[in-house]
Design brief:
The protein is mainly α. It has 2 domains: 184 residues, Up-down Bundle (Growth Hormone, Chain: A); 201 residues, Growth Hormone, Chain: A. 77% of the residues lie in helices and 0% in strands. Helix 2 packs antiparallel against helix 12 and helix 5 runs antiparallel to helix 9. The longest helix is centred in the last third of the chain and has 48 residues. The C terminus is likely disordered.
């Protein structure tokens, strides 16, 4: 990785190293898990899909309490324990042969992953100044994509070999990646817990913060972009241009390389709530344009034109994705009270689980059956969400030293720019 893509030395680079190790493990797991459980264990695709949907639904509920644990007990300690727990859960996949233990294990996996994300975000908030957070998160996202690519290559070897031993080897890489990621985090200083204990307010304060909830909901709508390249586009190609089956993987690689190379640059202009809201609004426009171009590939054009349109749409999507990511990172931190970063980040992160759970169900029907009109409808939804973020942020930021539902103190104003 070029030096300019590396974060500064010290805690930021240590966080990136931990992210890289865990991402390599994730890449191997995501590449192999579905085929392992269907082809090796003998599970039906329907039961696998149901189990994953249940797991991520439950996992989305775990982010807030585990984020609160990070606030109370320290995010570094919590992140290390959750990373090691994830490694233990993945190790259990080596001996699972039936559905009930699989369902239990995958639910625990989704739970620890949600909590680990919240604890890491709280760790970023505690170790890095406000001005540096979005830049660091851009570096971490770039590192994440690089690690996923390496892990996917390892998983690809297991898929090529196709034996039980090869799949179990890939799961071992996943477990070791999380162990390594957890041990690397031990090199960081612990962030002193600042979570306040008060009988006057709820323990999980974020669950009553309706302004922050609206902002998180708008972001969740934009996260419906997530299943597009991993699921919808391969199915779209198989339905409309089966001769281009290879292009689905190529577009996924294009997205990964784009984020690796340009996410840091895309985040440089995001320095406060105003610039973050503008970035999200720009993302809505770009995602609309991407959907329009994707939809044009359904109009009976030649195969070569379909390929050109899909590549162009994917480029627009990755640029929109990077803008949306940078803006949402800044917003999620700037609107969260400093002593509740873990639970607030855990709540904001539930959007990913919701997009993973509901996105495939909604988008397969809308896009595969709806054709161009379905793509246009999705694009308009992205456009509306992008433009709604600014007003939602202004509403949440207004008098944000106090909660709108009764005036309970949640954190002093930060002095960030006003959109």
């Amino acid at each position: 990785m070029p030096t300019r893509l590396l974060p500064p030395s010290g805690p930021q680079r240590t966080l990136a190293a931990a992210q890289l190790a865990s991402a390599i493990g994730d890449g191997a797991y995501y590449t192999c898990s579905a085929l392992y459980f269907t082809h090796i264990v003998g599970m039906s695709a329907a039961r696998l899909g149901l189990g994953l949907a249940v797991a991520w639904a439950l996992g989305s509920l775990a982010g807030v309490p585990l984020g609160h644990l990070a606030d109370r007990r320290g995010p570094r300690r919590t992140a290390v324990l959750l990373a090691l727990a994830t490694a233990a859960i993945v190790t259990s996949f080596l001996v699972i042969r039936s559905y009930p233990p699989f369902l239990l294990a995958v639910c625990l996996y989704a739970t620890t992953q949600s909590g680990l994300t919240a604890a890491r975000q709280a760790l970023v908030g505690g170790l890095v100044s406000r001005a540096e957070r979005t830049g660091l998160l851009a570096h971490l996202q770039s590192t994440l994509n690089g690690g996923l690519a390496v892990g996917a290559a390892i998983g690809g070897i297991a898929l090529t070999v196709g034996t039980r031993a090869a799949f179990l080897g890939a799961f071992t890489v996943t477990a070791l990646g999380f162990v390594a990621g957890g041990l690397i985090l031990l090199r960081l200083p612990e962030v002193r817990s600042t979570a306040r204990e008060s009988s006057a307010g709820p323990r999980f304060e974020v669950l009553t913060d309706r302004r922050y909830a609206v902002v998180a909901l708008v972001n969740t709508v934009l996260l419906l972009r997530m299943p597009l390249l991993s699921l919808i586009i391969p199915l779209w190609i198989a339905q409309r241009a089966p001769g281009l089956g290879w292009l689905g993987s190529a577009l996924f690689v294009l997205n990964t390389l784009g984020v690796m190379g340009f996410q840091v640059r895309a985040a440089r202009g995001v320095t406060g709530l105003a610039s973050a809201s503008r970035a999200v609004r720009s993302a809505g426009l770009l995602l609309l344009a991407s959907c329009v171009v994707f939809g044009l590939s359904a109009l009976g054009v030649p195969v070569w034109a379909v390929a050109v349109l899909l590549v162009a749409a994917s480029i627009l999507q990755v640029v929109g994705e990077m803008q949306q990511s940078a803006g949402s990172w800044q917003i999620s931190f700037d609107l969260a009270p400093a002593d509740r970063l873990g639970q607030y980040q855990g709540f904001f992160g539930t959007g990913v689980a919701v997009a993973r759970t509901l996105g495939p169900l909604l988008l397969t029907t809308l896009l595969l059956d709806g054709g161009l009109l379905g793509w246009l409808a999705l694009g308009v939804l992205f456009l509306a969400a992008g433009h709604a973020m600014g007003p939602a942020v202004r509403w949440a930021e207004r008098d944000r030293g106090y909660r709108s539902s009764g005036g309970a103190l949640v954190g002093a104003a930060t002095g960030a720019e006003v959109p």
